[in-house]
Structures
1.
Amino acid sequence: MTEALVSVRDLRVLFRTGERTVHAVNGVDLSLAQGEVLGLLGESGSGKSVTLRALLRLLPPKRTTISGTISVAGNDVVAMDEAAARDYRGGVVSMIFQEPMLAFDPVFTIGEQIAEAVVRHENVDRAAGRARALEMLDRVRIPSPKRRLDAYPHEMSGGMRQRAMIALALACKPKLLLADEPTTALDATVQIQILLLLRELQREMGMGVIFVTHDMGVAVEVSDRIAVMYAGRIVESGAVRDVIRNPSHPYTRGLLSSTVHGSMRGKRLEAIPGAPPNLATAPTDCAFAPRCKWVADACRAGVPDLAPVAPGHVAACVRLGAAARA
Amino acid sequence: MLKPAEDRGGPAQPLLTVRNLVKHFPVRGGVLGRTTAVVQAVDGVDFDVAKGETLGIVGESGCGKSTTARLLIRLIEPDAGEVLFDGQALGEVDGGLTLSELRRQTQMVFQDSFASLNPRLTIEDTIAFGPKVHGLADKDARARARDLLGKVGLNPDLFGRRYPHELSGGQRQRVNIARALALAPRLVLLDESVSALDKSVEAQVLNLLQDLKAEFGLTYVFISHDLNVVRYMSDRVMVMYLGRVAEIGPVEELYANPRHPYTRALLSAMPSMDPDRRTQEAPIAGDPPNPINPPSGCRFHTRCPFAEDVCGKAVPALTATKADPAHRVACHMIDAASGHSKAGSLA
């Protein structure tokens, strides 16, 4: 077996601001093979974006306590110094965000910003950087790329800016692309174009992708595997087909049944009651127990570990049998 | 006690009749602040909303769906057109509707649950505020607020004295719904009201909206960019594109047999929930055009795979399909006499 591209073991992230403490990530294990796409699915506050930012070493060191190990293409991400982190970001790993306007510097042209990244990471001259920028804009199918090279971010439409950000992220051919809800702010007809583009570029470049989203449909469109997060932990993961057709954790089941799709008119939605926990303290038992209809004493005994449901499909629930029989 | 206003025209009269509604926003620029361009946000929109139905409005950003809602409740003044509420126009000399009466009978729930609540008022004060302005005694207004809190699933003893920042997004949106109902309205405009909520909470609020509609006999205009949610909530759906109606019809008919090329593109752009049937090709390329200086003729012709000369020249009228007179489409391929080579093929 080839070595995994990404290997995260027992990742915990704690934020401290003033008197508030948030246990955002509470023991995440995940691994990703080269060329694999993982959809990280969860609601707001589930820790999916924080996990992604930890992988890129983007969390503010002053307010954050990180424990556990993160290894990406042989780099020890938690231990590396700032200089190494600068080589790592953009070279080995890149990220695309929900709001491209914030990812670009408004006073430089798109072409300058892509060229700058290439010059910084590959030690080539500006002409070569600019040539790469042009090649990338062409690859993300921006019409008349030569002209767009000299455009400022605000001169582009939302969909075009998102394409330009993908061009910037992929300019140095990273091994791993982190995508944080990159299509959430886009219109429906534009979202599908960007999803298809990402799928195609991922295949061509053979990179690994971790795609964070709250939208089940989007996760199904792009992922090979899905990991569902709740209260800072992965509660279920497996191949897309297995997770969607045979959701095993009660939270995943609830998420699927409360997501409106197809013709469900006149039927009452099976909503999950209550709201996610606030995470001021680290969970000591199953964090979903207060909202779960199969809750039992065993659920309060400790934090459940991921247990196999089927080959390659795991879920963290002590009552797996009870939920499956329902 | 506030009671819903009397029904005037009976069930056959639409609660809302909208004719040729127009709103253009000037874009000012330069040192003198002169009008340099015009955003044609809503440009000749016609529709009715029957009593007790839910009309869904869908479309992408800039299509005019939110502007339409704001025009209906007169948060902004239309440039032209007519809005009749149960047959009455606003401010008619003889027996017309006053603005305060219109706003009592029409209420709105917005997307941003935090921005739409006053941070300095407790939840109970917020809900009691409207009834007091409309003449209810403090004690009665508070009783009404507490009653409504219970109706939206928030225990008044637990939540009444809290402030907006002490609630979650889903709870705040329940408060906004309770406030909207405090004046016993007949029409509620829901503008992306569940879009900011997580899926598990969204389902709770959708169930609540359905329950309240049945209990109070409400009529909804439900605006959303989420086609799945609109299909679930609506009786009829109106698809807007750049300030105009592209297609309108009964929900299942429109989703099963979409006629307008834009509606078809919009529906096939929905992510698939089936891993074995992923989307293979984007239905249309490019972004929606800027509503400043929109395309001539049919506004969709710049992105339409069937566009011909006539589409850039003439504006297609909303025309009923043969199968269902309530299903109307603004496309030259519907109208047999339009001069399009596929004219009549969609009818």
2.
Amino acid sequence: MRKALLGACAFAALASAAQAETIAITHAHILTAASPGEIADGTLVIRDGKIATLGTGAAAPAGARVIDAKGATLAPGFFATNSSLGSVEVNSLGNDLSVDNPEIGAAFDIQYTLNPESILLPVARLGGLTSAIVMPKPGRGRRGAEDDDETSSFTAGAGSESNSHALFAGQAAVVHLGKGDNIVTRAKVGMVVPFGQAGAGVAGGARGAEFVALKAALQDVRDYMKNKAAYDRAGFRQLPLSKADLEALIPVVQGKMPVIADVHRASDIRAVLKLAHDEGFKVILDGAEEGWLVAADIAKAGVPVLLNPTNDRPESYETLAATMDNAARLQAAGVTVALESEGGDYRARETRYDAGNAVSHGMPYAAALAAVTINPAKIFGVSERTGSLEPGKDADLVLWTGDPFEPLSQPVAIFIQGVQQTMTSRQLELRDRYKDLARPLPPGYTHP
Amino acid sequence: MRLWTWAVALVAALTVAGCATTAPVAKGGEKSAEVAPAKPRPLPPGLDPMVRADAFPSTYKPLPSHPTAIVGAQVFTGAGQLIENGVVLLKDGKIEAVGPGLAVPAGYDVVQGKGKWVTPGLIDAHSHLGVYASPSVWANSDGNELTNPVTAEVWAEHSVWPQDPGFNTARIGGVTSLLVLPGSGNLIGGRGVVLRNIPARTVQDMKFPEAPYVLKMACGENPKRVYGSKNRAPSTRMGNVAGYRAAWINAADYQRKWDEYRAKVAKGEKADPPKRDLGLDTLSGVLRGEILVENHCYRADEMAQMIDISKEFGYHIAAFHHAVEAYKIADLLAENGICVATWANWWGEKMEMLDGIEANAAMVNAAKGGCAIIKSDDPDLIQRLNQEAAEALAAGRAAGYQISEAEAIKWITSNPAKAIGIAKQTGSLEPGKRADIVIWDHDPFSIYARTERVYLDGAISYDRFDPRYQPRSDFELGQTAEGAR
């Protein structure tokens, strides 16, 4: 029976032996991020890596491994939206997030970058994250050189602004954060494009230039699609984009692959919405600190927004109206919101605190939960598989000692595609090595 | 020994200053020198570092206040206690009394604290507000004088822009005092300044009265990267250490010259004063124990070397900052009485941050005599120091340490006060201290906690529900959606 099911599973090839395990988590306070939103004393059964059933007081099936949650909170695993996980190790040594190559912009595909062995992944996982949207970092071109002075050396970071001049920064991917060789859940989920000041920078210095350049590029893609044969025998006019980039942009002009627009200022958001409408491409707004000022326009266009709810300073001239209420106001206006954390890599585990901060600034709890689970799953086309606790979905879930948005709550058990993850990280090994400084031998002798 | 040197210097300074009042320099080249040939003339203004040691004195004045009683809240004192159903009495800008069920004297404003939490005003031991103001554009980037690896002569306060909107957002986060530091691009970056977090026209209006000055030093990657990339020293960690030691040698030599000069003056002997040097003034102030050393240093092995350098030249390091590897030498740091100002959640960005762990503060705290501080170094994190402390607390508990919230609140109140030299004035709710107080709507260790009111010196400086106490900086006036924040 189990084997038959496993064979039917499209992703069985990736399954480990542990995935076949049947597990019942009983007496859990379940937050589903679906309907019904909450189950006070529920049982969730994992079979073959999927959620088999969940409901009130259901008995554990015979032969299942039973985990008595004793009232602990079971929630979907969270998404690190706008993440670099798997694409960066020690950022000051470089990363795989941006390209400054005239032949490869739109064609840059983050899926080939990903390193499942990154030490960042277990740290993020222990923050309750089970998925990430890994996105190329848009360049700032000329404007990067203007803004990026020595500030990187005053604080912790070593500076990670990309000075790429690419109009199209490349294609994002959805990954899962479980142990495994292949962590890609879905590749080619969006095309990152910088707008506003950064867009002006990559286009040569002014915002107006970028819109002209983008329209021309998209027209070139349409012309190329209609004249591929002529193009291939060099019987077509010269196109500035490489063939690889033209090919990569076909799904964008077809309205199949959304543009992930890195944009902040209200007027720039309006301009992006209009461009998307005129050119017929789908768009996701990323950043959108001044989004609340144009919330009605965004809602009317049916465009989702990725934002960091704690961006509340006039950090730049593009975010003068930034406020902690942005997430709540956009959500209230009917916009689908997904939350992203600062950097989305080392500090990705702050995602759950970001959700809590959105709640304390007016976002309903269920909406904030959705904004770190089912909303990013929907926005990036993986909601059939993950993002909520519903029968048939991947068992990507985390058991918490309490409210997962609270720092004083800790994860107790983490499942990704039904596989229980180890609760270890390099950080925890370091911690345990140095906890007892009175050991007779130096710390180097203490290891797992 | 250090105190003795200092006392001699002070006596000499007073003598010189006394001369200035009793024997004014005569005009027009009269023969006054012949009248008292043994008495040297006082130095012209600005040439004697001891005459006006504080050349930019604080003009801070508390906001208007009224005697106030906060009644019925859960009160974290910052001195290790949690008082249930506490009463906090504020009068004349000071804390008058704190305890359970105190009677409220007549004429006091009564603030109902039932269901709320009270803490001391938060203190950020590491900020760059004002010197790296928002918006973070080139024109506002004034925190790193990257023209020389030793710039002890620069003072952060001369870069502070009081209109940085970040001061207001930090106050909303409960921060009432903060140390603004120069950046970490230099071995010795200059003086930092302790500020009261009130809206002000000048930085002098914000300067914390009687707070000591601090000196910013930096280990590791930043100085060697900045100067190595300019093909000059230091380009290595050993170059860094040679740079610190050379600077301290210069400072000790400078101090010796002034000591000799003052000794001669005190004896009425003829003496040629050393030429004043702003950088060496600051460094010799450290050697005299008047200026606190705040040392940016990530790695455990480098911190141990900095401790040895401090012993070689006879100064004390008040705190290591960032110090993400402090947990590896928590015993050594505690033995040397050095605080650790760190984060819970910042790590990995560069090699010297690779071994950062969430439990760092808790492990520092666990060492006997350990002094843990959670600080921001960041205009966003400064708004949520309580949340970072909660993460650090949770990580400590997960590591098996028994830590109460009443203990952990010290990481953002009394411990930073100690590390930046203002513990006698603020950092805990004890009678006689400045009435710097935050009222929270939830337990401050909850993610849902927001400040409702922030008092500085007993005066309301922020009120979440009263627009009269929601200041805006000049920069925010007339901008997009002004006031919507």
